[in-house]
Amino acid sequence: MAPVVAELVALQGRPDRVRNLCILAHVDHGKTSLTDALISSNGIISSRQAGRLRYMDSRDDEQDRGITMKASAIALVYAPPPSERGAAAPERDLINLVDSPGHVDFGTEVSTAVRLADGAVIVVDAVEGVCVQTHTVLQQVWREKLAPILFINKLDRLITELQLDPEEAYAHLQRIVAQVNAILGGLHAVEHYARADQTMSAPPCTTQGSGAVDAGASGEVVGGGMGDDFEFRPEAGNVVFGSALHGWGFTTADFASLMASRLGVSEVDAGAHLWGQWFFSPKAKAFTRDSSNGKLKPLFAQLVLANVWRAHAAASAPGDEGMDQLSKVIGALKLTVPPTDLKSTDPVARARGVLSAWMPLAPALLRAVRDHVPAAPLGQLARTSRLWDEALLRQSTAVAAAAVGASHPGGDSTHGEAAISAGVAETLSRAEAEALVAARDAVQACDPSSELVVAHVSKMFVNCRGESAVGFARVYSGTLRRGAELWLSPAPGSARGGATPPSSAFGASVAAAAAEAEAGGADGASPATGSGAGPGAQPVRVPAGVVQPLLMMGRDLVAVEEVPAGSLCALGGL
Predict the structure, then answer these.
(1) Theoretical Cys-Cys bridge with 390: which of 4, 190, 217, 486, CB 3.0 to 4.6 Å?
(2) Which pTM was predicted?
(3) Residues 6+ apart with CB under 8 A from 104
C-alpha cells in the first residue's frame, strides 16, 4: 500500500530516520528502471509496470525520447522485512530519492542532484561496464563526498546475451568493481597531491579562530560520506547485483546464511569470504586461497552465481520438463510466484517472476542505503566543509572574535583585531560574520527546532503541468513553514538565480541573507536563504504569505504545512 502524506510528513520530523539519495549513471544503464522498481515497492505503481512506465519521466519529451532530461525527486518509505524486525516495532526510514539524467548534455541536472543528497547509487551496466559518464559522476560523488553504493545492473544479460557461465561472469564482475575502484584511487591520488601542494605553499596560520573550521575542511570526512580510503567491497555490503528491469537483486549478505548452513560455518565468517579469491576445502573444512590446481571454484561463483544461473535456467526451460524443474526450485526456495508468471509462455516473464519472488530488488538496495548512507544530521555534518569556503569561515570567525573583544573592553582583543586584514573587513561585515558562524552551527546541528531557517534552492523548474516555477530545495536548519518570510540570495552571475553556484558559495549566501534578515527584521519571522551567492550579492525579500512548501512525489507536488531540517522539498512562490 502506498504511504500516505501524513506518514511521510511524520517521518520528516525525525531527521535521524531521513536519507537523501540520488541515482547516477551513464545513459541507458538503468537509472529510471531502478527508480521504478523502488517506487513499486511502496505500492505507488504496479511491479509489472516497473521499468516500463518510467514514472519519474513526467515530461512529454522525456517519454518520447526514452531518456531522463530533468532531475526529479520522490519520497519513499523503507520498512525492514519481518526477518529484521524482531519483537519490537520496526523503525521505518524516509528515503528522499532523486533521479537524474545520464546524458552528458544534462550535466547541470546531475549537479543539482548531488548538491542536495548525502548518498548516491552508481548504476553500471554489467555488459557495457564503466563508461565515460560513469567516470564523470564518480568524480562528482568524490568531490561532494557523498556516501556511494554501486549497483551492477542487467545481470540477466550475462546469462541471455553473453551466455557466460558462473565462473566467467564472476571474473567479469570482478573487473567492473576493480575498474570503479581504480577511478576512485586516481581521484584520491589527485586530491592528495593537490592538498599537499596547498599545504606547502600556504603561509603559517596564526588565527585562533580558525580552529572553528571542521576537520572536514582539510579533507577528512566527519560523521559519514566517502573518506580517502573508501572502496567498493561486495563483502561490506556496498555493492548490489541484479536486474532493475526484472525487479530482482541481491548482496553477498543475502547468501551468507545459505552458505553458512551448507558449509557449517558462522554467518559472519561466511559473508567475509564470499568475494575475492576464496575457496572452501571440503577435506580441511576451512577457507583457503588455494584452488587445488583449479579443482575448487571461487565461492561467489559456486554458491551465489551458480544458484542464480540454475534458477534462471529452470524458469527459462521449455516444455513439461522445464515446469518440473521450476516446481522443484520453487518448492526448495519456498517461493510464492504469481500464477500468471508461471503459466506464461514467455521464458523471460517466468524468470522474472521466480527471481523477483526469491530476491526482490527494493529490499536489498534500500537495506544497503540504510546501512551505508548517513542519516541527514550525519550527512550535513560530514559535508559542512563543502558548503562553506574554508577561507571565508576563517574570516568570519576572526571578525566575530574581534566583535566579542570590542564588546568587552577589559578583555584582550588585540589578537582578534590583528587577524582582520583590510581585505577581510571589506569582504564581511560584522553582522555577516556573526550570522555566518551562527548559521554554520545551525546547519551542523540539523535541528528542526532551530529559530534560524536555512534552505538551499539548487534549481528552479516548471512543474509537469506548466503552471508555475518552483524551487528544488533542501532545508538544512529549522523548519520551513507555509507563508514564512524569506531572504533569498540570487546565484552569482545571474540576476534571476538561474546559474548553478559552487557549493562553497553557499556559506557567503547564508551570511548575506541572515545578516539582512537580522538587520531588516521580519516581525519575528525566521530568516531563510536560497541558492548560494558570493559576498556582496543583495538578498531579495520574499514577503510573508507567499511561500508554499511542497512534498515532491515524482509527477505530483503535494502542498504541506511545513518541512523540517534534513528533508528535500519544492518551494512555490519564489
Answers:
(1) 217
(2) 0.84
(3) 27, 132, 133, 136
